[in-house]
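To whoever picks this up:

The parser on our side crashed when reading a file containing two proteins. I've narrowed it down to the boundary between the first structure block and the second sequence. Both blocks are reproduced below exactly, byte for byte. First block:
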Amino acid sequence: MKKLLGLLGIAVLGGALTLGGYKMFFNDTVIIERTVPEKTQTVQTNYNPTFTRNSTAIAAAAIDFTLAAEKSLNAVVHVKNTAIRTQKNPFAELFYGNGSGTRKFEQVGTGSGVIISSDGYIITNNHVIDSANEIEITLNNKKKYKAELIGTDKENDIALLKIETEIDLPYVPFADSDTIKVGEWVLAVGNPYNLTSTVTAGIVSAKGRDLEGNTAIDSFIQTDAAVNPGNSGGALVNTRGELVGINTAISSKTGSFVGYSFAVPSNIAKKIVDDLLEYGAVQEAVIGIRFSPVDNDKIVGVKIVGVEEGQGAANAGLQKEDVIVKVNNVKITKFSELRGQLTAKRPGDFVNITVEREGKLVTKNVKLSKKVKRFISKTFNWELKDLSKNELKKNNINNGVKIINTGERESKDSLKNFIITKINDQEIETADEAVKILENVAQSRYSIVIEMINTDGEKERLRFR
C-alpha cells in the first residue's frame, strides 16, 4: 500500500514539474480551432449601407404602383369596333344572277382607350377603330356608351372619340413625355384578350425608337411592360398616374408579348388631339431640311445635307453640313428623335435648334413651316405635283400633273419633268388622283397606258405591263 501511494505521489510531482516547465518556456495561449457551419445570410440586391431607415422607406414608397393604378384603372376603357363587311361569291353571281352571291357580315375588333377629359373625350389607336361602322365604349364600371369619331391621324396611329354621359368621368392627365427617363418605372393599363382593367409594370427601355419597316411612326417610347393584343390604345402611365404614352405596338413573331412594347409619346398624342379639336386635321410642322446620318464618330446628331429655300431652316441661317445636336435643350442623336420633337409642334411655332458647325455650337431660333403634302407612287417610284394655271397655259393643256422626281438617276431616258395627261384614257386632274389610279391599276396587274408630254412639248404614249 505504501508502495502504491509512493508511485502516485511521484506521478503527480512529475506532472506538476512538466506543467511548470511548459508555462516557463511557452507562455502563449493555446487556441483550438474548429469549423462550425454558419447560417446562410440573405442579402437584398439593392442593399446600400449608406441608406438610413427613413431613406429606405422613401425608396420603397417611390416604386409603389398602387396610387398610379388607382388613378388610371377607371379612366381606361374597352373599345369595341363593329364593321360591316361584304363578301361576294363569283360562282353564285354567275349562275344565279347579279346580287345573289353577296353576303354581309359583322366583323368585330376590340382594343383599349384612355379618357382624357371629364366630359368624355377618349384617345385610342387609329387601327383599333379603323373602318368601324359602330364604336362602343365600356367603362370600368361596365356601363356602355356609343362613341362618336371626332378625327384620326393614320400616320401616328391616333384617333379621338367622344361619348356623352350624365356624369363627370375620371380621366388621366397628360405628362411631359420629354422628361421621362430611360430606366423609369411605368405601368401599361388596358384590356388584353378582353380581360378588363389589367395593369402591368415595366421600365422605359428606350426613347425615340424607330421600328424597322414602319415608316409612319418613328419616335416610340419602348418599354418592357407586358402588352398583348387588346392593349392597343391603352395608357402608359408613370408612377404618379400621369399619361406618358399610348400603347400601340409590340415586337413579336407569335402575336403575343415577348419582351418589348412601344407607345406613342404623350406630347405627340396631345398635340394631335389639340389639332383635331381646333382644326379638324393634324397640322404637320417641318424645319425645311434634307438630312443624312452623321458619318463622324466624334459627333452625334442629324446632319443637314440641304436646306429648302424660303423655309424655316434657311431663313434662320442653318446651313448645309451643320449637325443638329439639340432641339429646345433636348438632345438629338438620330432623326427619329428630331422628328419626335417636330411632330409635337405646329407650323408657326419657334424652336431653338443647336447645331455643331466647324467645331463650335451655334443656336438658331427657327420658325417651323407647314409640311407640304407629297404625292408618291411607290409602284413607279415617281413623285408627282399639281400643275399651276401658268404651267397649264404654257403647255396648252387643260389638265395634267408633273413628275418632279424619279427613283432612278437622271439620264436621257429619265421621265423627270414629263407631264401626265391621261392614264388608260382617263384624264388626270390632280396628283392625288394620279397616284391612286397608278397604284390601283398596278395592283390589278392590268397593263397601263400613260399619255405624257415630254420636256420638248411633244406627246408620247408609254405602255407599262
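<<boundary where parser fails>>
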Amino acid sequence: MNSVVVGLSGGVDSSVAAALLHHQGYDVVGLTLWLMKGKGQCCSEGMVDAARLCEDLSIPHHIVDMREVFQANIVDYLVAGYSQGITPLPCSQCNKAVKFGPMLHYARTELGVDRIATGHYAQITRDDSTGRYQLRRAVDTNKDQAYFLYDLGQEILAATLFPLGNQPKTETRRIATEFGLHTAEKPESQDLCLIEAHGSMQAFLDKYITPQTGEIVDQAGRVLGRHEGVHHYTIGQRKGLGIAHSEPLYVIGLDPMRNRVIVGDRSSAQDYECIVRQVNWVSIAPPTTPIRAEVQVRYRSAAVPATLIPLDGGMGLRIVFDDPQFSVTPGQAAVCYNGDILLCGGIIESRS
C-alpha cells in the first residue's frame, strides 16, 4: 500500500512535503500534533493552516492531542534543566519523544499505515553492507536539521521519508507557489515554539521558575555584579551581564546551589574536552575503540575535528577536540559526523 502519514505543522515546509508526496502518487494522510495553545506552528494557529492544506489537497486530516506528553517531555524537562544550571536542547527531545515515535505509533495502530514523512531538511539512506539506515545532512546546509534528529532510532529511520532533504529552501518556496499552496508566503518560524508562544525564553522560564537575585562572581569568587536568576544565563553568554570591566566577560559557570553566575575571559569559556552521555549511534554500530569524527556542539556552530573515546560500551563518549572550543554547554547536544553522515549524538554532561 502506497500510503504515508505526513506530519503537518501548518508551515510551508510540511505543506510542501505533503503536496510533493501527493503529487508523486502517495495516498497522503495529514497528521497534526496538538502540542500547546497559542500562536505559531504546533499551536492553534498551525492546526488551522494544516487543516486548510488538507482541504486544498482533498486528503484526510487527523489531530492528536499531545499536550500532556509535550508538558511532561518538553516543558517539565526544560524547567528541570534550567533549574539545575544546564541549558537543555528541547528540539531533539521533542523529535524523539513527542513527534516521530508517537506519529509512527498512531500511523500504524490507528490508520494501518507503516510510513511517515515530515518537512525536515535531512536525508536518509541505507548502507547495504551493514543493513543500517544512515542519517545524512540535507543538501541545503543553511537549512540542514539532521543535528536535531540524532536521537532517532533505526525503526523510525526505516519508516520515515524526508521529501525536502535533497532540495534548497528556495525550491520549497517555488514549489509551494507552483502548487498554489496558501502557506507559500507564510513567514518562517524563527524561534522555538515555546518562545513563539510566550514571547521569549525568559518569559517562559519565569512562568515556572521564581527569579532570585544573586551574585555574579569571577573565578576567584570576587563579586562583580548582580543577576536576576541563574536560569536566565547560559555558558558563553556575553550580553546582558551589566558589568563594566577592562575586558569582555563571558559566563563560564552556573552554580544554582549558591545562586551564582561565574564569569571569566573568553579563554575561560573554551574547552579541549567534554563528556557526553545518552549517546545514540545512528549510522554506525557503537565502536569499541577511539575514532575520528567532526563534532558539532551547537546547531549553528561549525563541525570541528575531534577524537571520540567510547565510554560504558558506547553509551557515553569522551570527546577530545583538536582545538579548544568555545561555549561547550552542558545540556546541549554534541553531534558527530563523518562528512555528511551523522554518526551519533548525545547530551553534553560536563566540560573539561
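After patching the parser it read the second block fine. The mean pLDDT is 93. The CA atoms of residues 19 and 179 lie 8 Å apart.
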